[in-house]
From TrEMBL:
<protein>
    <submittedName>
        <fullName>Glycoside hydrolase family 1 protein</fullName>
    </submittedName>
</protein>
<keyword id="KW-0326">Glycosidase</keyword>
<dbReference type="Pfam" id="PF00232">
    <property type="entry name" value="Glyco_hydro_1"/>
</dbReference>
<dbReference type="InterPro" id="IPR033132">
    <property type="entry name" value="GH_1_N_CS"/>
</dbReference>
<dbReference type="InterPro" id="IPR017853">
    <property type="entry name" value="GH"/>
</dbReference>
<comment type="similarity">
    <text>Belongs to the glycosyl hydrolase 1 family.</text>
</comment>
<dbReference type="GO" id="GO:0008422">
    <property type="term" value="F:beta-glucosidase activity"/>
</dbReference>
<keyword id="KW-0378">Hydrolase</keyword>
<dbReference type="InterPro" id="IPR001360">
    <property type="entry name" value="Glyco_hydro_1"/>
</dbReference>
<dbReference type="GO" id="GO:0005975">
    <property type="term" value="P:carbohydrate metabolic process"/>
</dbReference>
Length: 409
């Protein structure tokens, strides 16, 4: 028998989602791209069915959020992270849609009624079309446009929401949308990516200040995914490669974001063992053992959480694990992965890291961006034809840990 680790009273246990991935019926820059003739032709060339890659009704969570929160409650969760869709709130610049504002008020109240603490993300990858047409995150006025939207939400929901996440993964936005161009608006320029990251930082700061003005006690931060990097072999070239990759991939501006935050919002999905070898696939850098992998092909490496969390001590701020999970349609590894990861989180806490909550990604199977509907990250399985929900066994294993509020480490 190992040692028992007791999580502190008030520890937040839950799962996370994002608007575009679960709601259905959105109209934003992603929906435009999903349906564009170019994207559809590209999917067909790869022998894929475009319908599997168009978010469409997603999980119909927009209409079924109460049912979904009932499930979360039945699974013992006491908190829930979700995002508000900017394109619904402000479909035209400066014009707010009162019906949608009321919708999200109902979402927040539904969480509160079930004893689930809301953690609200304000920007999780998708953008209103008018904003994108004006240059998106490259426009120097973008922070002010974001501020306008955030002030409205702070005024409307400031008395209900205590934990705000201004942006989900600014580095991913800069890299995937502006550097390698896999995601809208498909730019491929290092300078644009850098500019985007700086503008996002500016927007975060403005959002932070305006929310604080409404409620000084609110906790505000960002969510960033950090990679656990180590070396394949201790050679000079590998070490230099590691330094460069780590600098960019773990967000060169990360500490600036954290300086202007009340907490460190962490996501953890990846381990990368770096070896410089430009003549192989995976950009010549990734040489993992891959003893266990998810349906995304990502190595399951729970032990990476410990060094990452311990490194966060330097910020001397509370930490929330805002996302952590795996695509696992057969639910083969999810229980193991959750348990193992929580053990490493517990060990980090024993070493003095002030972790305040854990949000599994995700509550529901959902629309996995470029990966479409085939990647199943949910504690709850979705039947996309009937929209029936079915709780996966791993969700019940997670519930056991939540109920005990402790784990054997
Ligand atoms: C994103 C989620 C995404 C998950 C799995 C995270 O980085 O925030 O939206 O579904 O990764 O790819």
């Amino acid at each position: 028998m190992g040692q028992k680790f007791q999580f502190p009273k008030g520890f937040l246990w839950g799962a996370a989602t994002s608007a575009h991935q679960v709601e259905g019926g959105n109209h934003n820059d992603w929906t435009e791209w999903e349906k564009s003739p170019k994207r559809i032709a590209e999917l067909k060339t790869r022998g894929l069915n475009p319908d599997d890659y168009i978010s469409g009704k997603a999980c119909d969570h927009y209409n079924r959020f109460r049912e979904d929160f009932d499930i979360a409650k039945s699974l013992g969760h006491n908190a829930h992270r979700f995002s508000i869709e900017w394109s619904r709130i402000e479909p035209e610049e400066g014009k707010f849609d009162e019906k949608e504002i009321e919708h999200y008020r109902q979402v927040l109240l539904a969480l509160k009624e079930r004893g689930l603490e809301p953690v609200v993300t304000l920007y999780h990858y998708t953008l209103p079309l008018w904003f994108v047409r004006k240059g998106g995150w490259l426009n120097s006025h973008a922070p002010m446009m974001f501020l306008n939207y955030v002030s409205k939400l702070a005024d409307e929901y400031g008395s209900i929401v205590k934990i705000w996440v201004t942006q989900n993964e600014p580095e991913t936005v800069a890299r995937e949308s502006y550097l390698i161009g896999w995601r809208p608006p498909h730019k491929t320029s290092f300078l644009s990516a850098r500019r985007c990251l700086h503008i996002l930082l500016e927007a975060h700061k403005l959002a932070y200040d305006v929310i604080k003005k409404v409620d000084l006690d609110s906790q505000i931060g960002i969510a960033e995914t950090l990679v656990y990097f180590d070396l394949y072999k201790n050679t000079l070239l590998n070490k230099l490669t590691l330094k460069l990759i780590k600098w960019w991939r773990n967000n060169p501006l990360f500490s600036e974001f954290i300086k202007y935050s009340d907490f460190v919002g962490l996501e953890y999905y990846y381990h990368t063992r770096v070896r410089f070898n430009p003549f192989t696939s995976k950009w010549g850098i990734q040489f993992n053992e891959n003893k266990k992998i998810s349906d995304m092909g990502w190595e399951l490496f729970p032990q990476g959480l410990l060094p990452i969390l311990v490194e966060m001590k330097k910020f001397d701020k509370p930490v929330y694990i805002l996302e952590h999970g795996l695509a696992d349609a057969k639910d083969q590894n999810r229980s193991w992965y959750i348990k193992e990861s929580l053990k490493f989180i517990a060990q980090a806490m024993q070493k003095g890291v002030d972790v305040r909550g854990y949000f599994h990604w995700s509550l529901l199977d959902n629309f996995e961006w470029q990966g479409g509907f085939g990647r199943r990250f949910g504690l709850v399985e979705i039947n996309y034809k009937t929209f029936e929900r079915e709780i996966r066994p791993s969700a019940l294993e997670y519930k056991k840990i939540i109920t005990l509020n402790s784990i054997e480490i």
